[in-house]
Amino acid sequence: MRIVVESFTRDGTPVGSRAIADRDDVSWAASTVRNEFAVLVSHGLLEQPHTSAGRRPTESGYRYFVDGLLSAERRPTPPMIELTFDRNEVADAIRQTTETLAEVTELMALISAPPLASEEILRVELIALAPNKVVVVVITNSGNVTKRQFEFDRAVDDGLARWANGYLNERLSGVPIGARMIRSRLFSSELSATEQSFVEAISSAFLEPPAGDDTLFVGGAGHLVGAGANESIPGLDRLMTAIEERAAFSRLLRSRMGERGVFLRIGHENESVELCGASVVGANYGTHTRNLGSVSVIGPVRMDYPLAIESVRFAAARLSDFVSDVYA
User: pTM for the complete prediction?
Assistant: First the structure.
């Protein structure tokens, strides 16, 4: 089975019994290989496109092959991936990982960022846009920045804005966005009615994580439309639309967030119709206590699974080391 998968992955043409029998590492005669082919076909692991053709793996055949890779005690040598993160910003680290992973695997790479609700407030800035308009900027410990604009019926006193800037940083630094404790930290019995009213008016900037909190970094989408990809991925147009909309990928990665180790979806194993012509190989990253996001590559069912598996495994491990320091 391994020889057929590796040959078909490399050449893209059905593998004949004579081609296998002529290999130096195979001692079987062509007739024996044909008998083995018949057994594998009967189990749904191989198929014959037409009578005179060789054999190629089915989706079940790829699953059988991949399960063997995942259960093997000895893993292949990790790919040569250079990832050096010199700044304490998660977005930059994820962007670099996405680009590198796509380049190494020649597949589309997609990495989900940690949900904003898991990040701590590092700093708050109040910026006056107009006498009655204020922008609240929240900077998190991972370098993410969110902005909310608030408009008031009357001009905001400069002294009140300066006070609020210092007060909010003192009370909220180190507190997770959206945490239950934020409301108790925001309000104090010592606040005047004016101060309490102003803090209440802008409190949603801290109590409510932004809608659509599913940031996905995508790299190497061009690999899906490269030479031969139109033949390798059925429904490619539908898949490219899904890439633009991101929803199918968000659902898939969220559904696997509780897992440890590498996860795969091969062809029709994908629940989303947009992905049923492709394969997804992924691994979660995070701290020792929780997963924060997923590293994945997407490509044709006929992909180099050993390379994809070890690449996402390595990249997820490197990101885990990085975010463990950031979210410590």
Answer: 0.72
CB atoms inside a 10 Å sphere around CB 88: 13
Could you list the pLDDT tens digit for every one of the 328 residues in the chain? 888 998 998 888 888 888 888 888 888 888 888 888 899 999 999 998 877 778 899 999 999 999 998 887 666 666 667 777 766 677 788 888 999 999 999 999 999 888 766 677 889 999 988 999 999 998 887 667 788 899 999 999 999 999 999 999 999 988 877 666 788 889 888 899 999 999 999 998 887 655 544 578 888 888 876 644 555 677 777 777 777 666 777 777 777 777 778 999 999 998 888 888 889 999 999 888 888 889 999 999 999 999 999 999 999 999 998 888 776 5
Q: Does domain 117-207 have CATH number 3.40.50.720?
A: no
Q: Which fold has domain 90-114+214-326?
A: Beta-Lactamase (3.30.450)
Q: Rounded to whole angstroms, how far apart are CA atoms 48 and 295?
A: 34
User: For residue 86, what are its two tokens?
Assistant: 């010199």
Q: CA angle, 301 as apex, 283 and 42 as ends, to 5°? A: 115
HSE-up of residue 146 (Cα within 13 Å, Cβ side): 25
